[in-house]
Design brief:
The complex is a heterodimer of chains A (208) and B (471). Chain A has 208 residues and is α/β, with parallel strands linked by helices. In chain A, 20% of the residues lie in helices and 25% in strands. Chain A has a single domain (29-197), classed as Rossmann fold, CATH 3.40.50.10420. Chain A has a 5-stranded parallel β-sheet with strand order 1-11-6-3-2. Chain A has a 4-stranded mixed β-sheet with strand order 7-4-5-8. A two-stranded antiparallel ribbon of chain A has the order 9-10. Chain B is 52% helix and 10% strand. The chains are: A alpha/beta (208), B alpha/beta (471).
Chain lengths: 208, 471
């Protein structure tokens, strides 16, 4: 008996269409001069924030969505060495499961200016879970992590080597009740993209 | 009941109809604003169309490549010829693992296959996790829109549903508060689920990856927490290479909601440690549609819903009036292909304004397909008796100029002599919402001749588009 696979592939071969010849290939748009401003506008349109800081002191300079002082005992998962995980976020096997987290800090790889999205590959399933269950999400990118559009992003990504990866843009959101925007539908209620740059480049680039 | 009757029910609530119309037009306007910010938008649409055409030409090769890559990455690939096989495969995967609690994210394919009722009949609880889908699930209704499943409902109705099902306070209708209640309820269900079922936006042949987008993050919670992920994918969802994703993802969210990109665009490849990924590839009539030269391009659809939002008929008749899994222009094409007899009215629920084709991100000639469907249905004789008769009469007259002139000459005289109420009665249902025009004393032909004579006499030259003021 023929399997479903054989039947389907045979049917697709039998009904194979031929469309008129066409040209393919789209030139990827270049990086805009006001890239930072566009990236910021796109992220803010998605309900997120863009924060610029220097590698040296970003931890104390950016606007954190939760109080980081130990006395406040916020539960944190952090993928950055400067900030320790604690509480439920600590990937210590002693506490493998959690259903609530105050803050998740991730390392992003690329930020796509035109989309306002950041490409991120969770290192562990614990990290992926933390990114979804946390109340607030902070994704940190460094240096020349900006690309103009998704075309350039996919040139730098190798999906064959990625078991799970995602573009993130702003917090979890819904507009399913009368089109009213609500942040924090299921996942984080806030999302910040933190772009760390060298001291020299700290100022906003000005179009010349 | 048919589209006309269901639409009449919907428009009986004028306030709702007006709100529905404006809400969807607002989404259309956001789509325009988002598209305007992309300088190469039209080229992007052409590129997307070209990629989809290439994919449709190479479906068997692409799916074999996909399967090979997915298996290498540790996924299991299943093939289903129809809805029944699809449902049986999913049910077997779940029952073999003694799964009784499933979370599902939005998937028009599983709606099409009737997966939920099938699993429920086996004692498996399926929770739709997209907020809009959850709302309609709790009300026992189908989605009325492919992107905004509860767009037909007002906040008060949703509050009542939440009061009945989740103990929300009486009279609560604040979207923030209602969403918070659903979030709390669904969070517990995510954590308790033993399996997650998702649809698929794009399957990448080159890498065996699946791409699924969502704004709420429900796709990700439903796949990151339970150990089993079942992804159900229609044959038309394949794209050749990872670079093609850039083209579709630049178009999809902008066309759907006016967002630059969805909040979550997740790429799954294979199985993570301790987890399973099962991919169910479904035909269910797609290979048959591929054989139809006039309609096969409907398989390029990326389910953005832009054609629904812009459609003057959809906006004013509501999704449920289509009595179809997918409503609106694309639904009228696809559902008529699935069952021409059941959905014969849908190609006629179209003004042929062409707006759907203008906004379609993959350039499906939707209004032309709807027109073509009318021809197919007419040739197959799938028409109400009355329309068939009227069309035959019109065809007979229009093909015979002499006869037409005689009919026109006497017809106008008879029509002008009859009382207008009687005339309107004869022209029902057309005259239910419209007044008949005044029947002129002279035929168009005579009027045209007279007009030509007058303008020649006064020396006027009929101008074409003479708007430019040249000096």
């Amino acid at each position: 008996m023929k399997t479903a696979r054989d039947t389907i592939l045979a049917a697709l071969t039998a009904t194979r269409p031929v469309f008129p010849a066409r040209t393919r290939g789209l030139p990827a748009p270049p990086m805009p001069a006001d890239a930072t401003a566009i990236l910021r506008a796109r992220i803010e349109a998605a309900g997120g924030r863009l924060q610029l800081a220097s590698r040296r002191d970003w931890l104390t300079r950016i606007d954190w969505p939760v109080d980081l002082t130990p006395a406040r005992s916020a539960s944190i998962y952090s993928a950055r060495p400067e900030l320790a995980s604690r509480g439920a976020g600590d990937p210590d096997p002693a506490e493998p499961d959690f259903d609530q987290l105050d803050l998740c800090v991730l390392c992003g790889e690329l930020a796509v200016v035109e989309s306002g999205a950041v490409w991120q590959v969770p290192r562990t399933s614990h990290e992926r879970r933390a990114a979804l269950l946390a109340e607030h999400l902070v994704v940190v990118i460094e240096g020349d992590a900006l690309v103009a559009t998704l075309h350039q992003a996919y040139e730098r990504i190798d999906l064959a080597a990625v078991g799970f990866g995602w573009f993130l843009c702003g917090p979890s959101k819904t507009a399913d009740i009368e089109q009213a925007l609500v942040l924090g539908a299921h996942g984080p209620r806030s999302m910040s993209l933190v772009w760390l740059r060298d001291e020299a480049a700290e100022d906003e680039p000005r179009p010349t | 009941m048919g589209h006309v009757s269901r639409a009449r029910e919907f428009v009986a609530d004028a306030e709702r109809t007006t709100w529905h119309d404006r809400a969807l037009w607002f989404v259309r306007a956001k789509r325009d604003a988002a598209a305007d910010l992309v300088p190469d938008w039209e080229a992007l649409r052409s590129e997307a169309s070209a990629i989809k055409r290439e994919a449709l030409e190479r479906l068997p090769e692409l799916w074999i490549e996909f399967e090979d890559q997915a298996i290498r990455a540790g996924a299991v690939v299943h093939w289903a010829r129809d809805a029944q096989e699809h449902n049986a495969i999913v049910a077997r995967l779940l029952t073999e693992r003694r799964v009784t609690r499933v979370v599902k994210s939005k998937s028009m394919l599983t709606e099409e296959c009737g997966l939920n009722p099938h699993l429920e009949s086996l004692g498996i609880e399926v929770v739709d996790t997209d907020l809009g889908e959850r709302i309609v699930q709790l009300r026992g209704e189908p989605p009325s829109h492919i992107v905004m499943p509860a767009i037909h409902l007002r906040r008060g109705e949703i509050g009542e549903t939440f009061e009945r099902t989740m103990g929300a306070p009486n009279g609560l209708d604040d979207p923030d508060a209602l969403t918070a209640i659903a979030r709390r309820d669904l969070r517990a269900r995510f954590l308790a689920a033993q399996a997650g079922i998702t649809g698929v936006n794009f399957a990448v042949a080159e890498t065996g990856s699946l791409v699924v987008v969502s704004n709420e993050g429900n796709v990700d919670l439903g796949t990151a927490l339970p150990p089993l992920h079942i992804a159900c994918v229609g044959l038309e969802k394949i794209v050749p290479a990872q670079r093609d994703l850039a083209v579709f993802l630049r178009l999809l969210a902008r066309s759907a909601t006016g967002q630059a990109i969805s909040a979550y665009t997740s790429h799954f490849r294979g199985r993570a440690a301790g987890r399973e990924l099962h991919i169910v590839v479904v035909d269910n009539g797609r290979s048959r549609l591929l054989a139809e030269p006039d309609f096969r391009e409907a398989l390029a659809c990326i389910r953005c819903g832009a054609c629904l939002n812009t459609c003057p008929v959809y906006r004013r008749s509501g999704g449920h009036s289509y009595e179809a899994v997918i409503p609106g222009p694309i639904g009228s094409v696809l559902e008529t292909a699935r069952d021409p007899v059941a959905h014969a009215e849908l190609p006629h629920a179209c003004t042929l304004c062409g707006s759907c084709s203008e906004v379609c991100p993959v350039r499906i000639p939707l209004h032309q397909q709807l027109l073509a469907w009318r021809g197919v249905l007419a040739r197959k004789g799938i028409h109400p008796q009355r329309r068939r008769l009227a069309l035959r009469l019109a065809a007979g007259l229009l093909a015979r100029p002499g006869l037409l002139r005689i009919f026109d000459h006497f017809g106008r005289r008879v029509a002008r002599a009859l009382p207008s109420a009687l005339l309107e009665g004869l022209a029902r249902p057309w005259t239910r919402e419209r007044a008949l025009p005044v029947i002129p004393a002279e035929s168009f032909r005579t009027q045209w001749k007279q007009r030509a004579r007058t303008s020649n006499a006064s020396g006027d030259v009929p101008s074409s588009g003479g708007d430019e003021a040249r000096t």
